[in-house]
Predict the structure.
Amino acid sequence: MVQPPKVNGMEMIVNFKNLYLEAFRNCRPNYLVMFLKAYSVFSAAMILMAVYVLVYRAVTGFEF
């Protein structure tokens, strides 16, 4: 079985940045690009908030 190459944290962030920039490079019309960028930021914020709430509840002893 072939093992994938190990990637450190900084390389992973750079790869995500490159994927993000490449996804919107030749996308037209411009209002759609702005909407998709705002939606991607909103989605990331919602996911981070959900992870924060889950961790906070687990650390403070909330019974699931």
Summary: Residues 27-64 form one domain. Helices lie at 9-23, 30-59. The chain has a mean pLDDT of 84.
